[in-house]
Design a protein that fits this description.
The protein is an alpha/beta fold and 409 residues long. The chain has helices at residues 102-111, 113-121, 172-186, 198-207, 243-246, 258-261, 271-282, 298-307, 315-323, 337-347; strands at 7-12, 79-81, 88-95, 125-132, 135-137, 145-147, 164-165, 231-237, 288-294, 328-330, 350-355, 366-370, 383-386, 389-397, 401-406. The protein has two domains: 1-16 and 349-409, no CATH class; 88-347, Rossmann fold, CATH 3.40.50.410. It contains ten helices and 15 strands. The longest helix has 15 residues, at 172-186.
Length: 409
């Protein structure tokens, strides 16, 4: 450790989710104390100052490595710290259960096989809820319909069956069994399932109550799906657009008609409004990504149409993914594993550049890098100092700990 005038800082990074952040590191107020100079006599004097490493070239303050060679008292001491942020991601899986998804539902569980493996391996505290793209009846009256209502996971032995959690310590095989059984239970072709609104379902889930100036509402139970400070990753799986054709009459296909498929859109269907409600509900600093497994081009649309019922390119879902730097997978893919890997990586926050409190004296700079698992990985990274910025040669996942020591004038 460098002497009492050294600069020490511990910086913690948190995962988080389904967007990628790289903001300036914020610190608490620093303390500052002037250094005390000591005089050398012949340029090779270890001197009386305990901060002097024994290479004092003289009394002119010309050796930046030697705080003892500071007759003017210009060296400063700063003490700064940042709390290690929470390492959590909350997933919301939104599945289209309309009749057009019948063939896709048969394949969906198998295509999601890699998801279980990825979840079991994630070095973050995750939890996941699942809902559908329509309203659900939760009660006995005509008023008991809710959007975004969390469905219980099949074969889930956890305390809250609508929550699947990392803390349950489930194996990839157990997660896979639960996910497949739940998708089978959801099925396709439920009554009123033709009005698919994946964005609205996510919106209602976040609100957990009445959506102002609309006939829609979410259920308070959905609030369990979100934890304070956690990143949020929504994954929508659908073969149509928001409300099938996003309210655009020219997109109707036989046997669709205006009466069956042309519906009014509300502000809660809009991608921009979903981003706004995420920020207003969970804070402006929320790391939120919207990820889509959808019909994303004309070729996939034609292939889906050939199966039977009409499909539509998910233009609203594409926009939501772009707005939040989320991922996009074609629903026509045979395997979703690589795309789901992308979804997981996108919500995990990586960072490689950090702003220091002052420009360090390069010869005095030391750094220790500790992985989220507690291993010293300093030897696996390199860095470049540029003024008051340090840039590593690779992204460091949140949860990594950085310890810096250096002098600044």
């Amino acid at each position: 450790m460098i002497g009492s005038t050294s600069f020490k800082m511990s910086l913690g990074l948190l995962v988080l989710v389904l967007g990628t952040a790289c903001s300036e590191v914020q610190f608490s107020d620093a303390s500052k104390a002037a250094g005390v100079g000591t005089s050398g006599t012949d340029g090779n004097n270890p001197g009386t100052d305990p901060r002097d490493p024994g290479n004092d070239p003289g009394t002119d303050g010309s050796d930046p490595r030697n705080p003892g060679d500071d007759p003017t008292g210009l060296f400063n001491k700063y003490q700064q710290s940042v709390d290690i942020a929470k390492n959590q991601v909350d997933f919301l899986l939104v599945i289209d259960d309309s009749s057009s998804m019948l063939e896709d539902q048969k394949k969906l569980a198998a295509r999601l096989g890699g998801f279980a493996d990825r979840l079991s391996q994630l070095q973050v505290d995750w939890q996941m809820c699942v809902t559908v793209t329509r309203d659900q009846k939760v009660g006995s009256t005509s008023q008991d319909y809710y959007w975004g209502y969390p469905i219980d996971w099949s074969n889930n032995t956890g305390a809250s069956q609508h929550l699947l959690k990392k803390s349950q310590n489930l194996s990839s095989m157990q997660i896979d069994t639960i996910v497949k059984a739940t998708i089978d239970k959801i099925g396709a072709g439920a009554p009123e399932s033709g009005d698919e609104r994946g964005i609205l379902a996510a919106y209602a889930s976040m609100v957990g109550g009445k959506i102002a100036n609309t006939p829609f509402k979410g259920h308070v139970k959905s609030k369990d799906c979100y934890r304070a400070g956690a990143a949020i990753s929504v994954i929508v799986i659908s073969d149509e657009d928001e409300s099938s054709i996003a309210g655009i009459k020219s997109r109707l296909k036989s046997p669709e008609t205006e009466a069956t498929s042309l519906r009014q859109l509300y502000y809660a269907d809009e991608p921009e409004q979903l981003v706004m409600v995420a920020k207003s509900t969970f804070g402006n600093g929320i790391r939120f990504s919207f990820n889509s497994i959808i019909v994303n081009d004309a070729q996939c649309e034609a292939a889906q149409d050939a199966v039977g019922t009409p499909s539509h390119i998910g233009t609203y879902y594409q926009k939501a993914s772009r707005l939040t730097n989320g991922g996009l997978i074609s629903i026509c893919e045979n395997d979703y594993s690589s795309g789901l890997e992308l979804f997981a990586n996108l919500i995990i926050n990586y960072q490689k550049e950090f702003t220091l409190k002052c420009e360090p004296i390069a010869a005095s700079f030391k750094v220790k890098v500790t992985s989220p698992q507690g291993a010293d990985i300093t030897s696996t990274v390199s860095y470049v100092l540029n003024g008051a910025t340090i840039a590593f040669n690779k992204d460091l996942i949140q949860g990594t700990k950085l310890d810096f020591e250096y002098y600044c004038k």
